[in-house]
């Protein structure tokens, strides 16, 4: 009895001490998290139900912003723009980085130098990369159209036609992003056992067949991960559109983030801009969940 | 994969063509920045350098206060790096090695926030910074002043301790055995001493990787500084390029000189720490 009496408070103080030490370590990070993640997320949800404009208005307007969102043609245009970006960008990126990675993985001399060259564009900021491409895509003096003219092709004014403006953004983001994805595929390739290729070549499969029938299926998780990252990244496109086209011509490269930025900070429609952001978040979330489910079914099969 | 000799030659040819395409924008921007205007606007284009000049670099530095912007960018990047490394590692260790009430719940909450895209918090974070109590002329309720708007703290603070830094460091601490500190604990060393003396030195490679990534993203960030910083004196390097591209008659030579100048620091850091870059990307790929 007496012993118990002494042990109980010390056990409690030990637990308190342990908790205090724990919170001392994670406390600063939690504080930042609360102020700059939790609070803003809550505020975004709240602002979406108001007509807040920082200066005068701040009324609760219920679901009005979300009804407006359903009929907002410009918002729908930005989503359609992202779709037209994604259908071009994602397959090309997967194809290029996958091919480059399996070629780099053939243990040839100079593979590291190649890898470095492919990775280099990824170091530049989106702003600097876009600026360089602004010059490369110049219709008269730009390198791209000059090279095309060697083949007898008259290149378009890339950035001032609504058909080619998005293609230009695809080119810039492919150029700067491919190196990182090559490195990711290379990491995935290290986990494929050599014996698979040996037995395939005994069965008479050439390098292209074994790349298609062994490597590509074996790297399916990497491909899925990269695709998801590319998709989520695509929804956040801003810098390139800002520098190259200002969202034009005729809103053909206007992205959701660009629209929300304009709405919130240029026109100060912060309530409605928040509703747009929340709407976008739910779209991305829905998309992620559906493709996760889809991916699970595919891998189970 | 082993392949035949003619196969190897084909592979090298394909990789070389790809390398030329990837390197061409660099070659062309360097060339443009270093040659006179008649060479820049020559048709057909001239592939070889010809006469070289530094006039565009001088011009770029006259048009934009680059030294000022360089210091601003360096300051913002380094402060953000320091807070992320210090507090990220501290929290990562806490979540990996210490036992306290609510540990799992708090960690899961933090990690699940990775799902929330930055655009959702963009406007409210601006409002939080603008109405931050006692900052930038604000009173205790956060009114009356401009808070952290137009200040480097407004750029640094929202990413001060990133969830990714905490998650990344936790993974590394988890991979270290628990009994490393056993004897130190028996001798009565406090948890803080154990952290700094025993565990922290073992995660130096992870810290280096995190530092490289932080430097890369901090140096290249554009959208957020563009929202927070209005004062021309407080701008960062990525905002400087606007001075050239907003012009109707673009000065391409100076524009290329400026683009190269602002990209150079990350390329230099990469040259020295390439290993950590590659490891970091591979980590991101494997973990998910």
Q: How does this structure look, described?
A:
The complex is a heterodimer of chains A (301) and B (288). Chain A is 75% helix and 0% strand. With 301 residues, chain A is mainly α. Chain A has 13 helices and no strands. Chain A has helices at residues 2-47, 64-71, 73-104, 111-119, 126-136, 143-150, 162-189, 194-202, 207-218, 220-235, 239-244, 256-266, 270-300. Chain B folds into 2 domains: 1-53, no CATH class; 55-287, MetI-like fold (Orthogonal Bundle), CATH 1.10.3720. Chain B is built from 15 helices and no strands. In chain B, helix 4 (66-97) packs antiparallel against helix 11 (204-220) and helix 11 packs antiparallel against helix 15 (252-287). The radius of gyration of chain B is 24 Å and the shape is flat. In chain B, 41% of the residues are buried.
Short description:
Chain A is mostly helical and about 300 residues long. Chain A has helices spanning about 1-45, 65-70, 75-105, 110-120, 125-135, 145-150, 160-190, 195-200, 205-220, 220-235, 240-245, 255-265, 270-300. Chain B has two domains: about 1-55, no CATH class; about 55-285, MetI-like fold (Orthogonal Bundle).
What structural class is derived from the secondary structure elements of chain A? mainly alpha
Summed up, the domain count of chain B is: 2
State the shape of chain A: globular
Low-confidence stretches of chain B: none
List the helices and strands and how they pair.
The complex is a heterodimer of chains A (301) and B (288).
Chain A: H1 2-47, H2 64-71, H3 73-104, H4 111-119, H5 126-136, H6 143-150, H7 162-189, H8 194-202, H9 207-218, H10 220-235, H11 239-244, H12 256-266, H13 270-300
Helix pairs in contact in A: 3-7, 3-10, 4-7, 5-7, 10-13, 12-13
Chain B: H1 5-34, H2 37-40, H3 55-63, H4 66-97, H5 103-112, H6 118-130, H7 152-156, H8 163-174, H9 182-186, H10 191-199, H11 204-220, H12 223-228, H13 237-240, H14 242-245, H15 252-287
Helix pairs in contact in B: 1-15, 3-15, 4-8, 4-11, 11-15
